Protein backbone atom coordinates (compact mmCIF):
# COMPACT_ATOMS: atom_id res chain seq x y z
CA UNK A 1 0.00 0.00 0.00
CA UNK A 2 2.64 2.50 1.08
CA UNK A 3 4.52 4.58 -1.47
CA UNK A 4 7.76 6.53 -0.90
CA UNK A 5 7.84 8.73 2.21
CA UNK A 6 6.88 12.34 1.62
CA UNK A 7 9.09 14.93 3.36
CA UNK A 8 7.32 18.14 4.38
CA UNK A 9 8.88 21.31 5.77
CA UNK A 10 6.43 22.55 8.42
CA UNK A 11 8.06 25.97 8.70
CA UNK A 12 7.42 27.39 5.23
CA UNK A 13 4.59 29.68 4.07
CA UNK A 14 1.72 29.61 6.58
CA UNK A 15 4.00 27.58 8.85
CA UNK A 16 1.25 26.41 11.18
CA UNK A 17 -1.52 23.91 11.68
CA UNK A 18 -2.72 24.18 8.14
CA UNK A 19 0.37 22.43 6.78
CA UNK A 20 -0.33 19.55 9.14
CA UNK A 21 -4.01 19.41 8.12
CA UNK A 22 -3.38 19.42 4.38
CA UNK A 23 -0.38 17.09 4.41
CA UNK A 24 -1.84 14.44 6.74
CA UNK A 25 -5.17 14.43 4.85
CA UNK A 26 -3.40 13.91 1.52
CA UNK A 27 -0.99 11.35 2.99
CA UNK A 28 -3.97 9.39 4.35
CA UNK A 29 -5.87 9.57 1.05
CA UNK A 30 -2.93 8.61 -1.15
CA UNK A 31 -1.45 6.00 1.18
CA UNK A 32 1.87 7.85 1.34
CA UNK A 33 4.00 7.75 4.51
CA UNK A 34 4.69 11.29 5.70
CA UNK A 35 7.30 13.08 7.73
CA UNK A 36 6.68 16.69 8.74
CA UNK A 37 9.64 18.54 10.26
CA UNK A 38 10.08 22.01 11.82
CA UNK A 39 6.42 22.14 12.85
CA UNK A 40 5.31 25.69 13.60
CA UNK A 41 8.96 26.83 13.55
CA UNK A 42 7.76 30.28 12.56
CA UNK A 43 5.43 30.59 15.55
CA UNK A 44 6.05 32.06 18.98
CA UNK A 45 5.70 28.55 20.48
CA UNK A 46 7.24 26.01 18.12
CA UNK A 47 5.97 22.46 18.07
CA UNK A 48 2.56 20.84 18.44
CA UNK A 49 0.45 22.83 20.84
CA UNK A 50 -2.26 21.66 23.17
CA UNK A 51 -4.18 24.76 23.99
CA UNK A 52 -2.03 27.62 25.18
CA UNK A 53 -4.12 30.46 23.80
CA UNK A 54 -1.66 33.16 22.81
CA UNK A 55 -2.90 36.65 22.23
CA UNK A 56 -0.87 37.17 19.07
CA UNK A 57 -2.96 36.55 15.99
CA UNK A 58 0.03 34.87 14.30
CA UNK A 59 -0.17 31.81 16.52
CA UNK A 60 -2.56 29.13 15.43
CA UNK A 61 -3.97 28.09 18.77
CA UNK A 62 -3.73 24.41 18.45
CA UNK A 63 -5.35 21.90 20.73
CA UNK A 64 -6.89 20.80 17.47
CA UNK A 65 -3.52 19.89 15.92
CA UNK A 66 -2.97 16.83 18.00
CA UNK A 67 -6.58 15.68 18.02
CA UNK A 68 -6.74 16.23 14.24
CA UNK A 69 -3.65 14.08 13.68
CA UNK A 70 -4.95 11.38 16.02
CA UNK A 71 -8.29 11.41 14.22
CA UNK A 72 -6.66 10.85 10.81
CA UNK A 73 -4.58 8.05 12.32
CA UNK A 74 -7.75 6.40 13.67
CA UNK A 75 -9.65 6.85 10.38
CA UNK A 76 -7.12 4.67 8.61
CA UNK A 77 -5.60 2.52 11.38
CA UNK A 78 -2.33 4.29 10.67
CA UNK A 79 0.74 4.81 12.81
CA UNK A 80 1.66 8.19 14.21
CA UNK A 81 5.04 8.76 15.82
CA UNK A 82 6.42 11.64 17.89
CA UNK A 83 3.00 13.30 18.00
CA UNK A 84 2.97 14.89 21.40
CA UNK A 85 2.61 18.44 22.67
CA UNK A 86 5.70 20.48 21.81
CA UNK A 87 6.95 18.04 19.18
CA UNK A 88 8.50 19.74 16.13
CA UNK A 89 8.43 16.62 13.96
CA UNK A 90 5.91 13.85 13.27
CA UNK A 91 5.90 10.75 11.09
CA UNK A 92 2.68 9.21 9.86
CA UNK A 93 2.16 5.87 8.10
CA UNK A 94 -1.38 5.52 6.74
CA UNK A 95 -3.29 2.32 6.05
CA UNK A 96 -6.72 1.76 4.45
CA UNK A 97 -9.41 4.36 5.26
CA UNK A 98 -12.36 2.79 7.02
CA UNK A 99 -15.83 4.14 7.75
CA UNK A 100 -17.75 3.77 10.99
CA UNK A 101 -17.92 5.93 14.11
CA UNK A 102 -14.91 8.06 15.05
CA UNK A 103 -14.53 10.50 17.92
CA UNK A 104 -12.10 13.41 18.21
CA UNK A 105 -12.00 15.56 21.33
CA UNK A 106 -9.77 18.62 21.65
CA UNK A 107 -10.68 18.73 25.40
CA UNK A 108 -10.49 22.53 25.09
CA UNK A 109 -12.01 25.19 22.85
CA UNK A 110 -9.95 23.83 19.94
CA UNK A 111 -12.06 24.10 16.82
CA UNK A 112 -14.39 21.29 15.73
CA UNK A 113 -14.48 22.99 12.31
CA UNK A 114 -10.75 22.43 11.84
CA UNK A 115 -11.22 18.78 12.85
CA UNK A 116 -13.88 18.55 10.15
CA UNK A 117 -11.58 20.19 7.60
CA UNK A 118 -8.85 17.60 8.13
CA UNK A 119 -11.14 14.55 8.16
CA UNK A 120 -13.78 15.34 5.51
CA UNK A 121 -11.69 14.59 2.38
CA UNK A 122 -10.54 11.29 3.91
CA UNK A 123 -13.94 9.89 4.86
CA UNK A 124 -15.25 10.57 1.34
CA UNK A 125 -12.88 7.83 0.16
CA UNK A 126 -13.62 5.38 2.99
CA UNK A 127 -14.98 1.88 2.48
CA UNK A 128 -18.34 2.73 4.09
CA UNK A 129 -20.30 5.59 5.69
CA UNK A 130 -18.73 7.52 8.55
CA UNK A 131 -20.04 9.25 11.63
CA UNK A 132 -17.64 11.75 13.17
CA UNK A 133 -18.20 12.91 16.75
CA UNK A 134 -16.19 16.13 17.05
CA UNK A 135 -15.80 17.81 20.43
CA UNK A 136 -14.35 21.20 21.33
CA UNK A 137 -15.17 24.79 20.38
CA UNK A 138 -17.93 25.38 17.82
CA UNK A 139 -17.72 29.16 17.85
CA UNK A 140 -14.09 29.81 18.76
CA UNK A 141 -11.41 32.27 17.69
CA UNK A 142 -8.92 31.66 14.87
CA UNK A 143 -11.14 29.18 13.03
CA UNK A 144 -14.42 29.17 11.12
CA UNK A 145 -17.55 29.23 13.28
CA UNK A 146 -19.73 26.11 12.96
CA UNK A 147 -22.41 28.35 11.44
CA UNK A 148 -19.99 29.24 8.65
CA UNK A 149 -19.29 25.55 8.06
CA UNK A 150 -23.02 24.77 7.81
CA UNK A 151 -24.20 27.91 5.99
CA UNK A 152 -21.31 28.56 3.56
CA UNK A 153 -18.80 25.69 3.36
CA UNK A 154 -21.41 22.89 3.18
CA UNK A 155 -23.56 24.08 0.24
CA UNK A 156 -20.48 25.03 -1.82
CA UNK A 157 -18.34 21.96 -1.13
CA UNK A 158 -21.33 19.73 -1.93
CA UNK A 159 -20.99 20.96 -5.54
CA UNK A 160 -18.10 18.48 -5.80
CA UNK A 161 -20.83 15.82 -5.86
CA UNK A 162 -21.34 14.58 -2.31
CA UNK A 163 -23.62 15.34 0.63
CA UNK A 164 -22.94 15.42 4.35
CA UNK A 165 -25.02 16.03 7.42
CA UNK A 166 -23.85 18.21 10.31
CA UNK A 167 -25.82 18.00 13.55
CA UNK A 168 -24.88 20.61 16.17
CA UNK A 169 -25.55 18.89 19.51
CA UNK A 170 -23.97 21.46 21.83
CA UNK A 171 -22.21 24.73 21.19
CA UNK A 172 -18.91 25.39 22.95
CA UNK A 173 -16.97 28.64 23.36
CA UNK A 174 -13.55 29.89 24.39
CA UNK A 175 -12.02 29.01 26.84
CA UNK A 176 -13.99 25.95 27.99
CA UNK A 177 -15.00 24.32 24.73
CA UNK A 178 -17.46 21.55 25.53
CA UNK A 179 -19.25 21.71 22.18
CA UNK A 180 -20.12 18.68 20.07
CA UNK A 181 -21.14 18.19 16.47
CA UNK A 182 -21.93 14.93 14.70
CA UNK A 183 -21.01 14.75 11.02
CA UNK A 184 -22.37 11.96 8.82
CA UNK A 185 -20.76 11.33 5.43
CA UNK A 186 -21.29 8.66 2.77
CA UNK A 187 -18.33 7.75 0.57
CA UNK A 188 -18.13 8.65 -3.14
CA UNK A 189 -16.50 6.97 -6.15
CA UNK A 190 -14.97 10.24 -7.40
CA UNK A 191 -15.35 13.99 -6.89
CA UNK A 192 -16.68 16.17 -9.70
CA UNK A 193 -14.73 19.31 -10.63
CA UNK A 194 -16.40 22.66 -9.90
CA UNK A 195 -16.63 25.88 -11.87
CA UNK A 196 -17.34 28.90 -9.67
CA UNK A 197 -16.54 31.84 -11.91
CA UNK A 198 -19.87 33.65 -12.28
CA UNK A 199 -20.59 35.73 -9.24
CA UNK A 200 -24.03 37.10 -10.20
CA UNK A 201 -25.48 39.84 -8.01
CA UNK A 202 -26.39 39.84 -4.32
CA UNK A 203 -30.00 38.76 -3.80
CA UNK A 204 -30.23 38.42 -0.01
CA UNK A 205 -28.38 39.11 3.20
CA UNK A 206 -29.22 37.23 6.40
CA UNK A 207 -27.58 36.01 9.56
CA UNK A 208 -27.72 35.30 13.25
CA UNK A 209 -26.40 37.15 16.30
CA UNK A 210 -26.20 34.90 19.35
CA UNK A 211 -25.66 34.99 23.08
CA UNK A 212 -25.14 31.94 25.29
CA UNK A 213 -24.89 31.39 29.03
CA UNK A 214 -25.12 34.40 31.30
CA UNK A 215 -24.86 37.07 28.61
CA UNK A 216 -27.96 39.28 28.25
CA UNK A 217 -30.13 38.96 25.13
CA UNK A 218 -29.69 42.70 24.56
CA UNK A 219 -26.11 41.97 23.45
CA UNK A 220 -27.43 39.87 20.53
CA UNK A 221 -29.94 42.56 19.57
CA UNK A 222 -27.26 45.27 19.69
CA UNK A 223 -24.83 43.25 17.53
CA UNK A 224 -27.55 42.61 14.95
CA UNK A 225 -28.76 46.24 14.86
CA UNK A 226 -25.23 47.65 14.50
CA UNK A 227 -24.43 45.19 11.68
CA UNK A 228 -27.65 46.07 9.82
CA UNK A 229 -26.90 49.82 10.10
CA UNK A 230 -23.37 49.29 8.77
CA UNK A 231 -24.53 47.23 5.76
CA UNK A 232 -27.35 49.69 4.94
CA UNK A 233 -24.82 52.46 4.38
CA UNK A 234 -23.41 50.52 1.45
CA UNK A 235 -26.29 48.28 0.27
CA UNK A 236 -29.56 50.18 0.44
CA UNK A 237 -31.97 48.16 -1.66
CA UNK A 238 -31.93 44.80 0.17
CA UNK A 239 -33.70 43.70 3.32
CA UNK A 240 -31.05 42.62 5.82
CA UNK A 241 -32.43 39.92 8.10
CA UNK A 242 -30.17 39.23 11.09
CA UNK A 243 -31.94 37.23 13.80
CA UNK A 244 -30.88 37.76 17.42
CA UNK A 245 -30.75 34.35 19.17
CA UNK A 246 -30.53 33.22 22.78
CA UNK A 247 -28.90 29.77 22.61
CA UNK A 248 -30.98 27.28 24.63
CA UNK A 249 -29.31 26.36 27.94
CA UNK A 250 -29.23 22.64 27.14
CA UNK A 251 -27.57 23.26 23.75
CA UNK A 252 -24.70 25.51 24.79
CA UNK A 253 -21.82 25.02 27.22
CA UNK A 254 -20.36 28.10 28.90
CA UNK A 255 -20.74 31.74 27.89
CA UNK A 256 -20.28 33.21 24.46
CA UNK A 257 -21.56 35.70 21.91
CA UNK A 258 -21.01 36.39 18.25
CA UNK A 259 -22.51 37.08 14.87
CA UNK A 260 -22.38 35.69 11.35
CA UNK A 261 -23.84 37.43 8.29
CA UNK A 262 -24.23 35.73 4.90
CA UNK A 263 -24.75 37.29 1.48
CA UNK A 264 -26.23 35.08 -1.23
CA UNK A 265 -26.03 35.83 -4.94
CA UNK A 266 -28.21 35.06 -7.96
CA UNK A 267 -25.83 32.28 -9.04
CA UNK A 268 -25.72 30.64 -5.59
CA UNK A 269 -22.43 32.11 -4.38
CA UNK A 270 -22.19 32.63 -0.61
CA UNK A 271 -20.05 35.13 1.30
CA UNK A 272 -19.77 35.70 5.02
CA UNK A 273 -18.58 38.10 7.66
CA UNK A 274 -18.40 37.04 11.29
CA UNK A 275 -17.08 38.11 14.64
CA UNK A 276 -17.05 36.85 18.23
CA UNK A 277 -17.75 38.85 21.34
CA UNK A 278 -14.86 39.38 23.71
CA UNK A 279 -14.73 40.67 27.23
CA UNK A 280 -14.57 44.45 27.24
CA UNK A 281 -15.58 44.88 23.58
CA UNK A 282 -18.97 46.46 23.12
CA UNK A 283 -21.63 44.66 21.12
CA UNK A 284 -21.91 47.34 18.41
CA UNK A 285 -18.25 46.96 17.59
CA UNK A 286 -18.60 43.17 17.18
CA UNK A 287 -21.58 43.64 14.83
CA UNK A 288 -19.76 46.28 12.78
CA UNK A 289 -16.64 44.12 12.48
CA UNK A 290 -18.69 41.26 10.97
CA UNK A 291 -20.55 43.64 8.62
CA UNK A 292 -17.30 45.22 7.41
CA UNK A 293 -15.77 41.80 6.80
CA UNK A 294 -18.78 40.82 4.68
CA UNK A 295 -18.68 44.09 2.71
CA UNK A 296 -14.94 43.65 2.05
CA UNK A 297 -15.63 40.13 0.76
CA UNK A 298 -18.27 41.53 -1.59
CA UNK A 299 -15.99 44.23 -3.05
CA UNK A 300 -13.34 42.02 -4.66
CA UNK A 301 -15.49 40.43 -7.37
CA UNK A 302 -14.65 36.81 -6.47
CA UNK A 303 -17.19 33.98 -6.14
CA UNK A 304 -15.88 32.79 -2.75
CA UNK A 305 -14.86 34.68 0.35
CA UNK A 306 -11.35 34.69 1.77
CA UNK A 307 -12.10 31.85 4.21
CA UNK A 308 -13.58 29.44 1.69
CA UNK A 309 -10.66 29.77 -0.76
CA UNK A 310 -8.21 27.51 1.03
CA UNK A 311 -10.89 25.04 2.18
CA UNK A 312 -11.68 24.14 -1.46
CA UNK A 313 -8.10 23.48 -2.61
CA UNK A 314 -7.81 19.85 -1.43
CA UNK A 315 -11.16 18.96 -3.04
CA UNK A 316 -10.11 20.62 -6.31
CA UNK A 317 -6.85 18.63 -6.21
CA UNK A 318 -8.73 15.33 -5.80
CA UNK A 319 -11.51 16.00 -8.33
CA UNK A 320 -11.74 14.28 -11.70
CA UNK A 321 -11.17 17.16 -14.14
CA UNK A 322 -10.48 20.89 -14.24
CA UNK A 323 -11.92 23.10 -11.47
CA UNK A 324 -11.98 26.88 -11.53
CA UNK A 325 -12.80 29.37 -8.79
CA UNK A 326 -12.72 33.15 -8.95
CA UNK A 327 -11.32 34.80 -5.82
CA UNK A 328 -10.21 38.08 -4.35
CA UNK A 329 -6.56 38.36 -3.26
CA UNK A 330 -5.14 34.84 -2.83
CA UNK A 331 -4.49 34.28 0.88
CA UNK A 332 -1.37 32.77 2.42
CA UNK A 333 -3.49 29.82 3.61
CA UNK A 334 -4.57 29.20 0.00
CA UNK A 335 -1.02 29.49 -1.35
CA UNK A 336 0.08 27.00 1.33
CA UNK A 337 -2.70 24.51 0.48
CA UNK A 338 -1.83 24.75 -3.24
CA UNK A 339 1.88 24.18 -2.54
CA UNK A 340 1.25 20.94 -0.62
CA UNK A 341 -1.52 19.72 -2.96
CA UNK A 342 1.05 20.03 -5.77
CA UNK A 343 3.90 18.50 -3.77
CA UNK A 344 1.98 15.55 -2.30
CA UNK A 345 -0.95 14.85 -4.63
CA UNK A 346 0.78 16.05 -7.82
CA UNK A 347 -2.25 18.15 -8.81
CA UNK A 348 -1.51 21.07 -11.16
CA UNK A 349 -2.64 24.58 -10.21
CA UNK A 350 -2.56 27.83 -12.19
CA UNK A 351 -3.32 31.13 -10.45
CA UNK A 352 -3.83 34.11 -12.74
CA UNK A 353 -5.38 37.56 -12.67
CA UNK A 354 -9.00 37.55 -13.87
CA UNK A 355 -9.29 38.91 -17.41
CA UNK A 356 -13.04 39.65 -17.17
CA UNK A 357 -13.85 43.28 -17.92
CA UNK A 358 -15.91 43.78 -14.76
CA UNK A 359 -12.85 42.71 -12.72
CA UNK A 360 -10.41 45.08 -14.43
CA UNK A 361 -10.29 47.55 -11.55
CA UNK A 362 -10.36 44.85 -8.84
CA UNK A 363 -7.88 42.48 -7.27
CA UNK A 364 -9.54 39.36 -8.71
CA UNK A 365 -7.95 36.01 -9.60
CA UNK A 366 -8.82 32.69 -11.18
CA UNK A 367 -7.48 29.58 -9.44
CA UNK A 368 -7.54 26.68 -11.87
CA UNK A 369 -6.68 23.10 -11.00
CA UNK A 370 -6.25 19.93 -13.00
CA UNK A 371 -7.38 17.42 -10.37
CA UNK A 372 -5.86 13.95 -10.05
CA UNK A 373 -9.18 12.09 -10.42
CA UNK A 374 -8.84 10.24 -7.11
CA UNK A 375 -10.93 7.05 -7.22
CA UNK A 376 -12.42 5.25 -4.23
CA UNK A 377 -11.19 1.70 -4.79
CA UNK A 378 -13.45 0.42 -2.01
CA UNK A 379 -16.62 1.10 -4.01
Automatic annotation (TrEMBL):
Cellular component aspect of the GO annotation: nucleoplasm
Reactions that this protein is recorded to catalyse: a 3'-end 3'-phospho-ribonucleotide-RNA + ATP = a 3'-end 2',3'-cyclophospho-ribonucleotide-RNA + AMP + diphosphate
Instruction: Provide the residue positions that the database annotates as binding ATP.
Output: 117, 307-311
Record key words, sorted = ATP-binding, Ligase, Nucleotide-binding
Q: Which EC number(s) are documented for this chain?
A: 6.5.1.4
Q: Where is the RNA 3'-terminal phosphate cyclase insert domain?
A: 197-298
Per the record, a Pfam family?
RTC
Q: Which family does it belong to?
A: Belongs to the RNA 3'-terminal cyclase family. Type 1 subfamily.
This protein is called: RNA 3'-terminal phosphate cyclase
Organism this protein belongs to: Saimiri boliviensis boliviensis (Bolivian squirrel monkey)
